[in-house]
Write a structure and sequence with these properties.
heterodimer, A: about 625 residues, alpha+beta, six-stranded mixed β-sheet, about 40% helix, disordered C terminus, B: about 170 residues, mainly alpha, Helix Hairpins, Monooxygenase, 2 domains, about 75% helix
Chain lengths: ~625, ~170
């Protein structure tokens, strides 16, 4: 009932009610949800007291089971029990074949290039499977917190590309979650660590999860968490350590590598158990078919060292990109369940020449950090205390002549970011230009990920080289990309919200939303109206708060009258109209009326920030 | 939005810049305009915050790097440098050739580190010279030549970083 909070002009609105917001760590192996309650960030347990939800979904003929019960079914019903689905997010069929030996599913093609998994409940995309995990966490949170969530911060590996991020956001949408922000996992961990330890200085976060590896170098200074560089491998994690053991077993047993899905699952489970046992034990017994053998820790180290070397290489590169010398790193924080492996701690300690910090729970720290950021974004906590400045992990660019990639935004650029580059036509009379958007570090486009293609049409015929086409890349705070192309002489424009080639098509999303139980039976118009009403309420609330804070200082009487009129108009339409379009139009009118006011407020806050700075200098 | 990169941070255009002070100002301003501060605001205000932040991030990126900062100062003076144009700078041309050859011959880490040290010295020398020229109105015409030198050295530094990545493979 946001309307109740609207006060007479000049009167301060009532303080915010606390808004329920959560942080969700959607992991390869495990997922968690956390929230800030009475000032304390904590992970939320299920009815049995478990905070960890295994990221497993078991599709049965008449039910969908998520979590520990699903995980227990992996060996008996491997084709209908989906685990490690995060490794498939934002990937095409091509990529999947590389992962095939680990994931025994039957893949089928959909409308887009995204692969679907055949289950007894029909074909499921990785996005839908992830959405089922998110729904379970959402239900847990709403039950525990006792109300509807205003939104969630969902974490993603820092090294996720645009397609993988978009897929994660789509999954949240399907689960009925309002995404406040996609947050990089190592940054979330840094927030939890930094606030807990009151840390300042340069911090390295080494995050080895079930299926992904990230390293981020941050500078912590008075509540600002500035990511200097990030690096990693979005297809390297604890699963690969298990796989190394499984390969070794098959080699030792001289067994065929052509396994049934059930054999494969049970071998990987045994490998995972062996890895965990080797944390304390110096050797472990393994058996496969008639073969029995012993895996020593020394042998295990030999098996995984090549994989760990890949993580160290990423660390060295991140340090170079951050322009930070090893000696400048004040702390190294270990995150992710795989950092429990002693060898991982050894090699990281040796690289950074210091003992890595392992005293925070490597499984929970990401969800906790995300919940703190969710609390800020929901408006429960002043943003003065905490600000995260993150970067894009991979360079963004365009295809140019000769199949080469021209970088427009370099990796490790701070987001939000906007950059433009000018191109021209290469043929006389050319009237269209294909814009091919790519992500990656290599020069040849074949080695980069293709994100999207679109065409700028209607360029007036000109001699080759005369047209001036400005292509603008804009990356928002979620790390998601928008591309606009414009011919400067004629003003012809084309733009695209980059919907990755490996993402879901709009039709697929629409179908999933209608199929989803949540919206079954709900009238489409009623839903549209409810959405517009919620948006209108939020706008009204925001404008009222802004007027109360700065209306007197920044607006003339006439300007103030115009805005008040637009508010009155919107309030009236909001109260009386059942037409979504009318509510939307009135909201838009208010938005336009406050445009200049919004710009002035932002200028004023910039001046205030600088003034604060200048006062400090005098004092110092 | 016509404010120059320096003005954005409340600074006067100059080559000499206290980087610690710049980054402190950057962080303070980021707190004021970052989209996270407008999570509750309507779509237009959010878009405005994204634009302002992107603009500020770009300004910070340019000012942090001496070669980019020098080039930007020249642009502020209305001089749009065509970087591909032939450089009338024979002595530096010789040095460029020498540096390129040296870089191509490097195959190990000690050599990389030695080269980096040499490059850094060269950069500092050119930066000092540019700084002196920039404060002396009578020598303004020489600024362009120095900016080209700084650009070349900056590009070379990026190539060294690529070489380091190859050596690490």
């Amino acid at each position: 009932m946001a309307l109740l909070q609207i006060a007479e002009p000049g009167q301060a609105p009532k303080p915010h009610q606390r808004r329920l917001a959560v942080g969700i760590d959607l992991g390869t192996t495990n997922s968690l949800v956390a929230s800030v309650r009475s000032g304390l960030a904590e992970t939320l347990p299920d009815a049995d007291g478990a905070v960890i939800l295994p990221s497993a979904v078991h599709y049965q003929a008449s039910a969908t089971v998520v979590g520990a019960a699903a995980k227990a079914a992996t060996s008996q019903d491997p084709l209908n029990t989906i685990v490690s689905v995060k490794r498939l997010m934002g990937r095409g069929l091509q990529d999947i074949h590389q992962l095939g030996e680990q994931l025994p599913y039957r893949f089928v093609a959909g409308d887009s290039q995204m692969p679907f998994i055949e289950t007894c409940q029909g074909n499921k995309s990785p996005v839908e499977v992830s959405a089922d995990i998110l729904k379970a966490l959402r239900a847990r949170a709403e039950q525990t917190l006792g109300g509807e969530l205003v939104g969630a911060v969902i974490t993603v590996p820092a090294y996720f590309d645009d397609a993988q991020r978009q897929a994660t956001k789509d999954a949240a949408k399907l689960a009925g979650l309002n995404v406040l922000r996609l947050l990089n996992e190592p940054t979330a961990a840094a927030v939890a660590y930094g606030l807990d330890k009151q840390a300042e200085g340069v911090v390295a976060i080494y995050d080895l999860g079930g299926g992904t590896f990230d390293v981020s170098i941050l500078r912590l200074s008075r509540g600002v968490f500035e990511v200097l560089a990030t690096g990693g491998d979005s297809a390297l994690g604890g699963d690969d350590l298990d796989l190394a053991i499984a390969h070794w077993v098959l080699g030792e047993a001289q067994a065929s590598t052509d396994l049934t899905p059930a054999q494969q699952r049970s071998l990987l489970e045994q490998a995972c158990a062996a890895k965990e046992a080797l944390t304390d034990a110096s050797s472990v017994q393994l058996s496969y078919g008639s073969w029995q053998g012993v895996l020593t820790r020394e042998r295990f180290v030999e098996l995984i060292d090549p994989l760990l070397e890949r993580t160290l290489k990423a660390c060295r590169r991140a340090l170079r990109d951050a322009d930070v010398e090893l000696e400048e790193v004040d702390a190294v924080v270990m995150v992710g369940g795989s950092t429990r492996v002693p060898r991982v701690r050894d090699v990281v300690g040796r690289l950074f020449a210091r003992e890595p910090l392992t005293d925070i729970d490597p499984d929970q720290v990401v969800a906790i950090g995300a919940s703190i950021q969710a609390d800020v974004l929901a408006g429960n906590r002043s943003g003065d205390e905490l600000l995260l400045l993150d970067v894009i992990p991979l360079s963004l660019g365009l295809e140019t002549m000769g199949g080469l990639m021209e970088k427009v935004i370099a990796r490790n650029t701070t987001i939000p970011s906007a950059r433009a580059q000018e191109f021209t036509t290469y043929k006389d009379g050319q009237t269209a230009m294909l814009i091919h958007v790519l992500q990656g570090e290599r020069e040849l486009i074949s080695a980069c990920r293709s994100l999207a293609r679109f065409e700028l049409r209607g360029i007036p015929p000109m001699p080759a080289g005369a047209a001036k086409i400005r292509v603008t890349f804009q990356v928002d705070a979620d790390g998601l990309l928008d591309v606009t192309a414009r011919e400067l002489n004629s003003g012809v424009e084309a733009s695209i919200q980059v919907k990755p080639s490996y993402g879901l098509s709009d039709d697929e999303i629409a179908r999933m939303l209608t199929e989803s139980m949540e919206y079954a039976g709900v009238d489409k118009d009623a839903r549209a109206l409810a959405e517009e009403q919620v948006d209108a309420d939020r706008l009204l609330e925001a404008v009222q708060a802004a007027l109360a804070a700065d209306g007197l200082a920044l607006l003339s009487e006439a300007e103030r009258r115009d805005i008040d009129q637009a508010i009155a108009q919107l309030l009236q339409v909001r109260a009386q109209s059942a037409d979504a379009a009318a509510v939307s139009a009135a909201a838009k009118a208010l938005s336009v009326a406050t445009d200049e006011f919004a710009a002035r407020r932002m200028d004023a806050s910039v001046r205030a920030a600088l003034a604060g700075r200048n006062v400090q200098e005098i004092e110092e | 939005m016509s404010e120059c990169h320096f003005g954005l941070f409340g600074l006067k255009p100059a080559f000499e810049l206290d980087l610690t002070e710049l980054s402190a100002r950057y962080r303070e301003m980021a707190k004021a305009v970052h989209p996270d501060r407008f999570a509750d605001a309507d779509a237009r205000e959010q878009r405005l915050a994204i634009e302002r932040s992107a603009n500020m991030n770009e300004a910070y990126r340019v000012l942090k790097n001496p070669a980019q900062r020098a080039l930007y100062l020249l642009r502020l003076q209305g001089c749009d440098l065509a970087l591909e144009a032939t450089v009338q700078d024979p002595s530096f041309l010789m040095q460029q050739m020498h540096l390129r050859e040296a870089l191509e011959e490097i195959t190990d880490w000690p050599a990389v580190n030695a080269f980096k040290a040499e490059l850094k010295q060269l950069q500092q020398a050119q930066e000092q010279e540019f700084s002196a020229i920039w404060q002396d109105a009578a020598r303004m015409s020489e600024a362009e030549r120095l900016v080209r030198r700084l650009q070349f050295l900056d590009k070379l530094a990026r190539e060294v970083r690529q070489l380091e990545e190859r050596l690490d493979d």
